[in-house]
Design brief:
The complex is a heterotrimer of chains A (361), B (294) and C (267). With 361 residues, chain A is an alpha+beta fold. Chain A folds into two domains: 236 residues, 3-Layer(aba) Sandwich (Rossmann fold), CATH 3.40.50; 115 residues, OB fold (Dihydrolipoamide Acetyltransferase, E2P), CATH 2.40.50. In chain A, 27% of the residues lie in helices and 33% in strands. In chain A, the strands form five sheets. Chain A has a six-stranded mixed beta sheet, with helices on both faces. A five-stranded antiparallel beta sheet of chain A has the order 16-20-17-18-19, with no helix packed on it. A four-stranded antiparallel beta sheet of chain A has the order 2-1-4-5, covered by helices on one side. In chain A, helix 3 crosses helix 4 and helix 3 packs parallel to helix 5. Chain B is mainly alpha-helical and 294 residues long. Chain B has a single domain, classed as Orthogonal Bundle (MetI-like fold). In chain B, helix 12 runs antiparallel to helix 13. A two-stranded antiparallel sheet of chain C has the order 2-3. In chain C, helix 3 packs across helix 4, helix 4 runs parallel beside helix 7 and helix 4 runs antiparallel to helix 10. Chain C is globular, with a radius of gyration of 23 Å. Chain C starts with a helix and ends in a 7-residue tail after the last helix. The chains are: A alpha+beta (361), B mainly alpha (294), C mainly alpha (267). At the A-B interface, strand 6, helix 3 and helix 5 of A face helix 8 and helix 9 of B.
Chain lengths: 361, 294, 267
């Protein structure tokens, strides 16, 4: 168990980086608390795996230091850092049995037979692998293999952190929830620091205590899933989190209201005041589930033309157009769906204002 | 891997089956046909059943040739497989050095086999060849080196030529196999604290099982059937010391005997290669499989 | 650049490998009389007469052209037939799959001489003697099984889950195969292409039997270097050097595929 810190870490895959776009990881300064479950979320190519490899030591960063419990480990290779990593596809020693696979890290560290045996059985018990200990690892199913990969990391009781690089990619969809739950159990039992990389926000939001959202090598926001959902600090966060993501409309301020192409939308007084202070390019943001949909004109609402209705079972997604802008609203099952036109109301307490893409608070 | 069960997969295999069957079955039928007849001329043949087979199987010169053949092929496998693996492990993974290495080791494979035999004749001649002159100048042999002087010299030259020529095949296959191992395995091994030897034994070698099977089978078959290179180099001599099976077969076929015995010999030849190929195949397929006792 | 022990060993091996080649080059730049009478580490009386003969005499250089034609034909055909079959063997269980797979390789287990007469009769019947396609097709006998075997091995190294994920994501089979799958087995395709090229290029018996003049390849023409005065060593050596060139080009072209190997991209 360890507390991991990044001190001004930046990384470029080029030997001589000139401008910011040469960097896969732009300067990052952050801390992972001991025993926390973190999700590194972001679209493909955003730098999550690079960041993970800097944590594990598989990659030495171009700049900055990595600290484990205050000790500078930047120069240490992975085997000296006591971390465990689970990859996107099961990585096992095919010719060994499950037992031998789990025992391998201990054997390499010189543990004696009795200790190894005891520890392997403990971990196998935790992961429901006791029945297959004597079987060749190669013949098992993908989810069992991933558990073995995880197990190899857990056998070392002094393991600092367990890192996951999109581990559920090759798992059958109906087995994913089972593994996710197992991971949560392990976390609660062992109180290990877990860092989980994924591009699937559902995975991230259900697994983690805190989510780190990344794009283009930068961290956009760190917070609980709740915080990211309700108070996205950046337009990108609002857009990425949520399915569908946040709606954005360019607007101008008029007193306590926002004006979008002639329509007036009421704002929270504080938000409006701060928006006026901030200045810059202003945008209105609201989540589809917060938009109120009416079939007839309503006070404070804006008229929209309905383009499409997507029935998703428990709720429906309405796609509407307002003066060339696209808006999406989410209404629960059973809520009446208007015919061609509708009116959308923006509850002021849910309407966010963004200045130069940053949240105005 | 858990395969999908579907007989419609035959459609994917059909083109291959047609091309190969068309090329193979007709000749096979012809050979079997000839092997059981005594052919005096076109349209003039007598059925003799297994007479040719009995004659071939009791031919002591065939036994000798067979023995030499096994020794040769055995040496080929023992030297070329480990050497090929070592070369593949040593070759660079990327960059210009990798390209240069690939082109270099490919060179011996591209020269027509009769040319190789002929060039090595000159190469090993004690008067005008580098190898011959070189060895003799070291002055360590009682009888001056000449690849036709003594059987052991002939064998040494033959083995040198053979290893020089064909080890690159093994190396190329192993190299491709090694490159196909995902980086994640090496990363996991580092994290597990594995030694270089463990990485070789538990990751590289198992993952090369596919290419090694092909390498072993190919070298086994091609060395057992070898003709042009030894024939060009030694003609089967001195005496009979390097007369391998196919050289003996051709000697027979172009000698007094006719198609019948030659056909029977060919079938026996084929069956020996087949039998051992099958044994190698099964062995390599199953090495490292199966559960251990609890 | 640190040169480690294993690199030195490799360089040593390469030097040993290239010595006979150098000797062949040496011979190619000398006249026959010179080769047979003097031992010389380098061509003292350098002459290009051997190479000149090849480049100016149509019976010689057409040999290279003919060989390139049927070898390229064969490589493309072998790959085209083998790829779907290898995929089938790798991903599917079907009636007779194990037997069929081994049977393919048995076609390389017979002494080639056995096939000569039947092939000659067969191709005569179809009026295909002395055509490039005849040799290309005949070489499929041993190249197609090899291609299937090598490709299957590499395909089986790619987890089936990748196929499944792609199909779930809506990829059609052709799109999956060419856009996703082939890049993952590029090392296998590279080595297969090279081996098909190589085995077809050096094959002598079929190439000589099935051709007369129009499609006669260089391997056959080279056997004609025996004349009244003995073997034309210099000419043979020059051709030996020249035959290396096309194959070297092939491996140069596939080098990146060989070195890339398996890269699990984000699907």
């Amino acid at each position: 168990m360890a507390r991991i810190e990044f001190d001004r870490i930046a990384h470029s895959y080029y030997p001589d980086p000139q401008q910011p776009s040469d960097y896969a990881l732009k300067e990052i300064d952050t801390t992972w608390e001991d025993g926390g479950a973190y999700a590194l979320l972001g679209p493909s190519g955003c730098g999550k795996t690079t960041l993970l490899n800097v944590i594990s030591g598989l990659l030495k960063p171009s700049k900055g230091r990595v600290l484990y419990d205050g000790v500078d480990v930047t120069a240490l290779p992975p085997e000296k850092r006591n971390i465990a990593q689970v990859f996107q596809f099961p990585v096992l020693y095919d010719t060994m049995t499950v037992f031998e696979n789990l025992a391998f890290p201990l054997k390499n560290r010189g543990f004696n037979k009795t200790d190894t045996d005891r520890r392997v059985r403990e971990v196998a018990e935790m992961l429901d692998l006791t029945d297959v200990l004597h079987k060749k690892a190669a013949g098992l199913s993908a989810d069992a293999k991933q558990k073995i990969s995880l197990g190899r990391g857990l056998v070392r009781s002094d393991v600092a952190a367990v890192l996951f690089d999109e581990p559920l990619t090759v798992i059958d969809p109906h087995l994913k929830w089972h593994l996710r739950r197992k991971l949560k159990e392990i976390h609660e039992q062992l109180k290990l620091t877990l860092i989980y990389v994924t591009h699937d926000q559902v995975e991230a939001l259900t697994f983690a205590d805190r989510v780190i959202l990344m794009n283009n090598g930068e961290i956009y926001q760190i917070g609980t899933p709740q915080e990211l959902f309700e108070n996205p600090k950046h337009k990108f966060v609002g857009y990425f989190i949520g399915s569908p993501g946040m709606n954005f409309l360019p607007c101008t301020l008029e007193g306590q209201n926002a004006r979008v192409d002639g329509a007036t939308i009421a704002l929270d007084p504080e938000t409006a005041a701060r928006g006026a202070e901030a200045g810059g390019v202003l945008e209105l943001g609201i989540r589809p589930m917060h938009l109120q949909v009416y079939a007839e004109a309503v006070d404070g609402g804006i008229p929209v033309a309905l383009k499409a209705v997507d029935d998703q079972g428990a709720f429906k997604i309405l796609t509407a157009a307002f003066n060339g802008h696209t808006l999406r609203a989410r209404i629960p099952e059973g809520h009446p769906v208007p015919e061609n036109n509708a009116w959308l109301k923006f509850p002021p307490e849910r309407t966010k204002l963004f200045a130069d893409e940053r949240l105005v608070k | 891997m858990d395969k999908w069960e579907d007989n419609r997969a035959w459609y994917l295999v059909l083109p291959v089956f047609v091309v190969v069957a068309f090329s193979a079955i007709i000749p096979l039928m012809t050979v079997v046909n000839y092997s059981i007849q005594d052919i005096f001329g076109p349209g003039n043949a007598v059925f003799v059943g297994t007479e040719w087979f009995k004659e071939m199987l009791t031919d002591h010169r065939l036994h000798d040739a067979l023995g030499r053949q096994f020794v040769f092929s055995g040496l080929v496998l023992l030297i070329e497989i480990p050497l090929g693996i070592l070369i593949a492990l040593a070759m660079p993974k990327k960059g210009w050095a990798a390209s240069a290495s690939l082109v270099t080791i490919a060179i011996p494979l591209l020269i027509p086999w009769n040319v190789i035999g002929t060039i090595w004749i000159i190469f090993t001649r004690p008067d005008i060849g580098l190898f011959g002159v070189g060895i003799n100048s070291l002055d360590i042999l009682t009888v001056p080196f000449d690849h036709t002087a003594r059987p052991v010299y002939a064998w040494i030259t033959l083995m040198a030529m053979e290893v020089w020529h064909w080890t690159p095949l093994v190396a190329l296959l192993c190299y491709a196999g090694l490159r196909a191992i995902p980086e994640a395995y090496y990363q996991a091994a580092r994290i597990d604290g594995a030694s270089k030897w463990s990485v070789f034994l538990y990751i590289q070698l198992p993952k090369m099982r596919g290419v090694l099977t092909i390498a072993v089978l190919l070298r086994w078959m091609d060395s057992f059937l070898i003709y042009a290179e030894p024939f060009a180099l030694t003609g089967g001599g001195p005496g009979n010391s390097t007369t391998f099976l196919s050289i003996y077969l051709v000697k027979l076929a172009t000698g007094q005997f006719d198609l019948g015995p030659a056909a029977a010999f060919s079938l026996i030849y084929f069956l020996i290669v087949l039998l051992f190929s099958f044994i190698f195949y099964q062995a390599l397929l199953n090495v490292g499989k199966g559960d251990s006792a609890s | 650049m640190k040169i480690r022990k294993r690199s030195w060993a490799l360089i040593f091996y390469f030097v040993l490998l290239l010595v006979p080649i150098y000797w062949m080059l040496n011979m190619s730049l000398r006249s026959n009389a010179d080769i047979l009478s003097n031992f010389s580490l380098y061509p003292a009386n350098l002459t290009f007469e051997n190479y000149l003969k090849v480049f100016t005499d149509p019976t010689w250089y057409s040999g290279y052209i003919n060989a390139m034609i049927y070898v390229s034909l064969n490589t493309v055909m072998s790959l085209a037939f083998a790829l779907p079959a290898a995929y089938a063997f790798s991903r599917f269980k079907f009636l007779g799959d194990g037997q069929m797979f081994f049977w393919l390789l048995t076609n390389r287990m017979a002494p080639p001489a056995v096939f000569l007469l039947p092939y000659f009769q067969l191709y005569s019947t179809f009026n295909l003697i002395d055509t490039h396609i005849a040799v290309a097709l005949a070489h499929c006998l041993f190249n197609v099984p090899l291609a299937v075997w090598i490709l299957e091995g590499f395909m089986s190294g790619v987890p089936k889950e990748i196929d499944e994920t792609a199909f779930i994501d809506g990829y059609s089979f052709p799109r999956f195969f060419f856009v996703l799958f082939l890049p993952l087995i590029r090392a296998g395709v590279g080595v297969t292409a090279f081996f098909c090229f190589m085995f077809s290029w050096v094959e002598l018996l079929f190439a000589r039997t099935l051709t007369v003049t129009e499609a006669k390849p260089i391997v056959a023409t080279m056997t004609r270097t025996i004349s009244a005065t003995g073997l034309d060593w210099g000419l043979l050596a020059a051709n030996g050097i020249l035959t290396i060139v096309p194959g070297a080009l092939v491996i140069w072209f596939v080098r990146n595929h060989l070195a890339k190997g398996f890269a699990l991209g984000r699907v």
